[in-house]
Design goal:
Order of helices and strands: HHEEHHHHHHHHHHHHH
Shape: globular
CATH superfamily: Na+/H+ antiporter like domain
CATH class: Mainly Alpha
CATH topology: Na+/H+ antiporter like fold
Largest sheet: 2 strands, antiparallel
Helix content: over 70%
CATH architecture: Up-down Bundle
Length: 389
């Protein structure tokens, strides 16, 4: 399962790079066309409520709900039948992930301590992009200790859980109690359907649409509806049918190869002018993101692992050393999809968003390059006769 997952993520990473380049080229070659396309509004009515969203908002609020649905499926699988089921085996990656979220946020806040506006982006460097990280792992292949792949995958999944909690708790608009109660009511209906033995997936999808709409109107970000549906999916076979695995196999390629690349095109349209680069170089927001990802991530992940070991809550698998964790922490500084997503929530339609996006792109490229070099050097050292291995 890990090999298949890593392969899918590696393919997704390649497509994601291509989509990013398309977004950048489109925005810089045909700026008016890019902005006009993604700013075009689509209107629709649902249960008597009129909604107007731009194409970019349809991607970020609608299509990304499918991405987070897949994330919810992955989390549910890992919690029930996967690596997170064994709490002791998951303890060190859990502490590493927490450190890898907390320290980057603290680094960002320290850099932006004097600016109340830019402080809103404190969660941007917290995220690790699982697609890119698994892509780098796949490219490095056998030159990495096999346990490091599993460690980073588990860490990235815990990181996803943290990102979902942060988005739900800290990036929620003014709550509309009626719509929120409606969403909770629909969740109760889904739970009741499960207990009554309803097996038809299309019925759950039918109920999921109004759930998404109620969450959208409630003020909580609409993508949380996707997470909720993923977590409500049974992880064990139902009447001999592996429902979660079937849904994951169907939706994961759509998410990785279609939805996330569309999201990248819609959200990486940064105008790469001299003024934009100069603004970013002098921006505490940009430096907070870069330092959070390049310094905060590896330091936090390594420190979290040390704390977990000191508390005797887990130990590193055979063949995996703390230096490998530190190198993997550098690669985990690739914060792309969710970091861009949080940037949109923090600085929607604000020029500061471009500074943060440029910082995310720059830091992610550097994290991939530096992390790969460090891990490759470790691999050569481990394989050399001097190492005694």
């Amino acid at each position: 399962m890990l090999g298949e997952f890593a392969h899918d993520e590696a393919a997704g990473a390649v497509v994601l790079v291509a989509a990013t380049v398309i977004g950048l080229v489109w925005a810089n070659v045909a700026t008016a066309g890019y902005q006009g396309f993604w700013g075009r509004e689509v209107r629709f009515d649902l249960i008597g409520v009129h909604v107007g969203e731009t194409y970019a908002e349809v991607v970020n609020d609608g299509l990304m709900a499918i991405f987070f649905f897949v994330v919810g499926l992955e989390i549910k699988r890992e919690l029930v039948v996967g690596e997170l089921r064994d709490r002791r085996a998951a303890a060190l990656p859990f502490f590493a992930a927490v450190g890898g979220m907390v320290v980057p946020a603290l680094v960002f806040l320290a850099v932006n301590a004097g600016n109340a506006v830019t402080r809103q982006g404190w969660a941007i460097p917290m995220a690790t992009d699982i697609a890119f990280v698994m892509g780098v792992v796949a490219l490095l292949g056998r030159r990495l200790p096999p346990p490091l792949r599993l460690f980073l995958l588990t860490l990235a999944i815990v990181d996803d859980i943290g990102a979902i909690v942060v988005i739900a708790a800290f990036y929620t608009d003014h709550l509309a109690a009626g719509w929120l109660l409606g969403a909770l009511g629909i969740v109760a209906v889904i739970v009741a359907m499960k207990r009554l033995g309803v097996r038809a997936v299309w019925l759950y999808a039918l109920v999921g649409l109004p759930l998404w709409f109620c969450v959208l109107e409630s003020g909580v970000h609409a993508t949380i509806a996707g997470v909720a549906l993923g977590l409500l999916t049974p992880a064990r076979p139902v009447d001999g049918r592996p429902v979660l695995e079937q849904l994951e196999h169907f939706f994961h390629p759509i998410s990785a190869l279609v939805i996330v690349p569309i999201f990248a095109v819609a959200n990486t349209g940064i105008i790469l002018s001299g003024a934009t680069v100069a603004d970013a170089l002098g921006s505490t927001l940009a430096w907070g993101v870069v330092l959070g990802l390049l310094v905060g991530k590896p330091v936090g992940i390594t420190a979290g692992t040390v704390v977990g070991r000191a508390l005797k809550l887990g130990r590193l698998p055979a063949g995996l050393e703390l230096r490998h964790v530190a190198g993997g922490g550098l690669v985990a500084g690739i914060g792309f999809t969710v970091s861009l997503f949080v940037t949109d929530l923090s600085f929607r339609a604000d020029p500061l968003g471009d500074e943060a996006k440029l910082a995310i792109l720059s830091a992610s490229v550097l994290a991939a390059a530096l992390g790969s070099v460090v891990l490759l050097r470790m691999g050569r050292s481990d394989a050399s006769p001097v190492s005694g291995r």
